[in-house]
Amino acid sequence: MTQPVPIRRVGDRPRLLDLCCGAGGLSMGYHLAGFDVVGVDITPQPNYPFTFHQADALTFPLDGFDLVHASWPCERFARVTAWRGNQDNHPDLLTPGRERLLASGLPWIIENVPEAPLRPDYLLCGSQFGLNVRRHRAFETSWGGGGDLVAPCWHHKNLLPFAHKAERAYADAMGCTWMSSTDARKAVPPAYSEWIGRQFLTHERSIAA
């Protein structure tokens, strides 16, 4: 387990680096949890709401951050890739990405689809947070999970599954209202990372006490 490190703050906010940030769904959640967020993505993200760097997430410097989040591309592992194409056409960035985070000595979080090869310390769905969407995502953390519990999924018949014909409604239901519909195709609801960010802060305070 990664050992706690002294928290460096911007004002009264710890600093978080969001690698492979996309348009910032998870970044927004960490912001709401109390972090000063910096995003990194290899492609331009004109709708990203915080400080942004277009760069390679596998080489961007990690120094100066209290927590690192990484959403390595999921196409290698996602079932939908197998339905529509070939998973082998997509590189596995999760494995070298995890190795880099492990070597950093910093606390970290990795998010990906549930079928990805990670330890699901948290497995979250929009229905657990009162959102009208069905979207499962797994999170592996350097501290191994624990903390507060959330209610089980409730996949009632009115939950929105992702569909291109209704993607604007889906984006808004996730809470990603600032994104374009195209941005939101790969986005994750901010509610997930707001909850996980608060779990991390509680965990750090309990160690420091």
TrEMBL record:
<dbReference type="GO" id="GO:0032259">
    <property type="term" value="P:methylation"/>
</dbReference>
<protein>
    <submittedName>
        <fullName>DNA cytosine methyltransferase</fullName>
    </submittedName>
</protein>
<keyword id="KW-0808">Transferase</keyword>
<keyword id="KW-0489">Methyltransferase</keyword>
<dbReference type="GO" id="GO:0008168">
    <property type="term" value="F:methyltransferase activity"/>
</dbReference>
<dbReference type="InterPro" id="IPR029063">
    <property type="entry name" value="SAM-dependent_MTases_sf"/>
</dbReference>
